[in-house]
Every structure is written in C-alpha cells, then in structure tokens.
Amino acid sequence: MVARVSTVAFQGIDGLPVDVQVMVAPGKIGMQIVGLPDKAVAESRERVQAALHASGLALPPKKVTVNLAPADLPKEGSH
C-alpha cells in the first residue's frame, strides 16, 4: 500500500514543496523515515505511534517506510 501527501518544508521564509510517500510492505516490523530528516522529524515516529495508540489503533505488523522527497532538501523542525 502506498499513500502520498503534499506539504512544504521551510527554508528561511520560503516554503518548498515536499512530497511525503508512505509505503506499507511485508518485511521486518518497524518504521523508517528517509529523505534527510533532522532529529525532530525522526522523532515524529514516536509521536505517530502515540497518537495511533491513543486512538485505539496500531501500526500494522509490517515494514513502514516514510519517504520525504526531494531527498536533497534537509527537513527540519516538528512543523
């Protein structure tokens, strides 16, 4: 399963387009975020799991990959 969402990353006062692609596939159970995320972005994995748990949901027991494209643009901050 693949899902896509369009958003922005801030560079100064400019908003640059970012495509968030999530793929759920068979494999080792866990979530990985790729595409130059900084520490705050990488920690969002814990926030997503906590929000799902609070809603009575859970991540599927599969490999979840979150790709932040373009890969050469650093993504920073919790926004």
Structural account:
- With 79 residues, this protein is α+β, with helices and mostly antiparallel strands.
- It has one domain (2-69).
- The chain is 19% helix and 43% strand.
- It contains 2 helices and 4 strands.
- It has helices at residues 39-42, 44-54, and strands at 2-11, 14-25, 30-34, 63-69.
- It has a 4-stranded mixed beta sheet with strand order 1-2-4-3, with no helix packed on it.
- A hairpin with a 2-residue loop joins strand 1 and strand 2.
Mind sketching the topology for me?
Blueprint: E1 2-11, E2 14-25, E3 30-34, H1 39-42, H2 44-54, E4 63-69
Parallel strand pairs: 3-4
Antiparallel strand pairs: 1-2, 2-4
Short description:
The chain is an alpha+beta fold and 79 residues long. The protein contains two helices and four strands; from the N terminus they run βββααβ.
Structure characteristics:
2 helices, four-stranded mixed beta sheet, alpha+beta, globular, 19% helix, 79 residues
When the domains are counted, the total is 1
Please count the beta strands (DSSP E, at least 2 residues each).
4
Largest sheet: 4 strands, mixed
Strand content: 35-45%
- Runs with pLDDT <50, length 5+? none
Helix content: 10-25%
What is the radius of gyration? 13 Å
